[in-house]
Design brief:
By secondary structure, this protein is mostly beta strands. Helices cover 0% and strands 48% of the residues. The strands form 2 sheets. Strands 2, 4, 5, 6, 9, 10 and 11 form a 7-stranded mixed β-sheet that branches. A 4-stranded antiparallel β-sheet has the order 1-3-8-7, with no helix packed on it.
Length: 126
């Protein structure tokens, strides 16, 4: 069982930065690929970024590439999403998720992930 808790959301002006954190419970954090997704009311959950258990393989959605960076610290059981050059279109609830995937595997498919946090709101004003 993995429990996830996001933090770091808030209100920021366009062009600003935020760093989201997701703390995970459990002793086998490095066995899980981690992902960030976001959702706006009335729309489907959207993939943002994912990173494999070892932290050496990551993927980012085209919409955030070169602006957002996913990383993880397995010693702290934490995954991060550094968000720079934020735009109003980035406004959403951001969720972290965990999937038991061995090796260098990552996934952009939400149904791959069996564990989800409660989400943290990010609001970008214009």
């Amino acid at each position: 069982q993995v429990q996830l808790a996001e933090s770091g959301g808030g209100l920021v002006q366009a062009g600003g930065s935020l760093r989201l954190s997701c703390a995970a419970s459990g002793r086998t954090f490095s066995s899980y690929a981690m992902g960030w997704f976001r959702q706006v009311p009335g729309k489907e959950r959207e993939f943002v970024a994912a990173i494999n258990g070892g932290g050496y393989n990551s993927i980012h959605a085209d919409s955030v590439k070169d602006r957002f960076t996913i990383s993880r610290d397995n010693a702290k059981n934490t995954v991060y999403l550094q968000m720079n050059s934020l735009k109003p279109d980035d406004t959403a609830v951001y969720y972290c998720a965990a999937a038991y995937i061995v090796g260098r595997g990552v996934s952009c498919i939400s149904t791959t992930y069996g564990y989800w946090g409660q989400g943290t709101q990010v609001t970008v004003s214009s």
